[in-house]
Amino acid sequence: MPGVRDAVDAGCGASGGHGLLLAAWERVWISEKITQFRRMITGTLAPHLALFPHSRWANYLNTQVTAVEVTLEMAATQTR
């Protein structure tokens, strides 16, 4: 995964625009949160759902976390 410096270099360009710098940093931060959500799903929820496929709690939490993941993906890829 690219780091913040890579995002800054790609988003800021030669103009040095602070708005582009902030947007690049935000996309990297959001991408890191997506990774954290995916790890939580695969490391915690998926095994629980495999053992208890009809667990109301696990299915509810999985739905909520998936919605957050999709929202973060949209934010991470949003361009002007």
Describe the structure in your own words.
The structure is a single chain. With 80 residues, the protein is an all-alpha fold. The chain has one domain (4-77). 81% of the residues lie in helices and 0% in strands. It has helices at 4-12, 18-51, 56-77. Helix 1 crosses helix 2 (18-51) and helix 2 runs antiparallel to helix 3. The radius of gyration is 17 Å and the shape is elongated. The two termini are 22 Å apart.
Q: Could you give the count of β-strands?
A: 0
Distance between the termini: 22 Å
Secondary-structure element order, as H and E? HHH
Strand content: under 5%
The oligomeric state is single chain
Q: What is the residue-averaged pLDDT?
A: 80
**Fraction in helix:** over 70%
Estimated structural class: mainly alpha
**Count of individual domains:** 1
- Report the principal-axis shape: elongated
Radius of gyration: 17 Å
The low-confidence runs, each spanning 5 or more residues with pLDDT under 50, are: none
Largest sheet: none
Count every helix, treating DSSP H or I runs of 4 or more residues as helices: 3
